[in-house]
TrEMBL record:
<dbReference type="Pfam" id="PF00389">
    <property type="entry name" value="2-Hacid_dh"/>
</dbReference>
<dbReference type="InterPro" id="IPR050223">
    <property type="entry name" value="D-isomer_2-hydroxyacid_DH"/>
</dbReference>
<dbReference type="GO" id="GO:0005829">
    <property type="term" value="C:cytosol"/>
</dbReference>
<dbReference type="Pfam" id="PF02826">
    <property type="entry name" value="2-Hacid_dh_C"/>
</dbReference>
<dbReference type="InterPro" id="IPR006139">
    <property type="entry name" value="D-isomer_2_OHA_DH_cat_dom"/>
</dbReference>
<dbReference type="GO" id="GO:0051287">
    <property type="term" value="F:NAD binding"/>
</dbReference>
<comment type="similarity">
    <text>Belongs to the D-isomer specific 2-hydroxyacid dehydrogenase family.</text>
</comment>
<dbReference type="InterPro" id="IPR006140">
    <property type="entry name" value="D-isomer_DH_NAD-bd"/>
</dbReference>
<feature type="domain" description="D-isomer specific 2-hydroxyacid dehydrogenase NAD-binding">
    <location>
        <begin position="108"/>
        <end position="283"/>
    </location>
</feature>
<dbReference type="InterPro" id="IPR036291">
    <property type="entry name" value="NAD(P)-bd_dom_sf"/>
</dbReference>
<keyword id="KW-0520">NAD</keyword>
<dbReference type="GO" id="GO:0030267">
    <property type="term" value="F:glyoxylate reductase (NADPH) activity"/>
</dbReference>
<feature type="domain" description="D-isomer specific 2-hydroxyacid dehydrogenase catalytic">
    <location>
        <begin position="10"/>
        <end position="314"/>
    </location>
</feature>
<protein>
    <recommendedName>
        <fullName>Hydroxyphenylpyruvate reductase</fullName>
    </recommendedName>
</protein>
<keyword id="KW-0521">NADP</keyword>
<keyword id="KW-0560">Oxidoreductase</keyword>
<dbReference type="GO" id="GO:0016618">
    <property type="term" value="F:hydroxypyruvate reductase [NAD(P)H] activity"/>
</dbReference>
Length: 315
């Protein structure tokens, strides 16, 4: 791979960067002004590596005449202009499967954290309030709650398997009902119906034009004042201003959020709310998974260079 010019868009992972540097001709996009870089090196870039937040948009793809492959360090490829890649014959890969367990673990962790108020209880102890004020307030049980999943794919199924162990009935919505595969899960043809029949709503579908703001005001109101929204998909799946208003008014009970519409900017109002648990897009953020994701990116680039079948092709 020594001759492969790879443009890394963002320092996504130290091990990946080190291996790209060792095995390829690596360009770090953040090290020089964009125009200056493109003037000097655009023709040498054959591969782009980005992640969930830094992808190859139409402008970047147009600026790279020798681009052959975009290898994303993420399962979601909503930041990659897939139509443009298809048009130019540019291959696209992602990192599915290897992050499924971690993202599902986090979804369940967030649901429990919101209902049992784990971060708030932790702050209570740290602030010395246990001693001065006495026992902490009662919280709400997670076991047995009806869990609705938007997108029963790899991550959605992993969430379902986990919550089954908590005796939670599983509901789901996606474009296709899978009655024969999941006879014990209840399908709802609309997200509003799913939310009306769930206590916890988990977003686990890809982001595209049809899923942007799939969690609308109407959906949040259907979930209701005791309902909890868990987003481990993408920020724009949820109408964020509507969510903030619904949480503030008590029309939505709580939220556990790993993703936001304009990362790393989080709506100021959420920071003061006691019914939300906020984490900084860390769904796949374990040593184990990030290493596996990096190896998958490297494996895809290597397969491409050797003209072998790509390991996880999207385009
Ligand atoms: O709709 P279907 O039957 O193709 O099911 C897929 C579902 N899905 C949708 N659900 C509701 N409305 C839609 N317009 C829609 N489009 C797709 O999402 C499928 O069950 C699920 C996606 O599953 P996988 O492709 O296996 O993706 P994975 O690995 O679970 O990751 C899901 C997303 C990523 O794209 C990232 O944005 C995020 O989770 O981390």
């Amino acid at each position: 791979m020594e001759s492969l010019g790879v443009l890394l868009l963002y320092p996504v992972n130290a091990y990946l960067e080190q291996e790209l540097d060792r095995r390829c001709r690596l360009y770090r996009f953040w090290e020089s002004p964009r125009d200056e870089f493109l003037r000097a090196h655009a023709g040498a870039v054959r591969a782009v590596v980005g992640n969930a937040n830094y992808g190859a948009d139409a402008a970047l793809i147009d600026a790279l005449p020798a681009l052959e492959i975009v290898a994303s360090f993420s399962v979601g490829i909503d930041r990659v202009d897939l139509a443009k890649c298809r048009e130019r014959g540019i291959r696209v890969t992602n990192t599915p499967d290897v992050l499924t367990d971690d993202v599902a673990d986090l979804a369940v962790g967030l649901a429990i954290a919101v209902l049992r108020r784990i971060p708030q209880a932790d702050r209570y102890v740290r602030a010395g309030l246990w001693k001065s004020r006495g026992d902490y307030t009662l919280t709400t049980r997670f076991s047995g709650k009806r869990v609705g999943i938007i997108g029963l794919g790899r991550i959605g199924q992993a969430v379902a398997r986990r919550v089954e162990a908590f005796d939670c009935p599983v509901n789901y919505h996606q474009r296709t009902e899978q009655k024969s595969v999941y006879p014990n899960y209840t399908y709802y043809p609309t997200v509003v119906e799913l939310a009306s029949n769930s206590d916890v709503l988990v977003v686990a579908c890809p982001l595209n034009a049809s899923t942007r703001h799939i969690v609308s005001r109407e959906v949040m109101e259907a979930l209701g004042p005791k309902g909890v929204l868990i987003n481990v998909g993408r920020g724009p799946h949820v109408d964020e201003p509507e969510m903030v208003a619904a949480l503030a008014d008590g029309r939505l009970g709580g939220a556990g959020l790993d993703v936001f519409e304009d990362e790393p900017n989080v709506p100021e109002a959420l920071l003061g709310m006691d019914n939300v648990v906020l984490v900084p897009h860390v769904g796949s953020g374990t040593y184990e998974t990030r290493k596996a994701m990096a190896d998958l990116v490297l494996g895809n680039l290597e397969a491409h260079v050797l003209s072998k079948p790509l390991l996880t092709p999207v385009v």
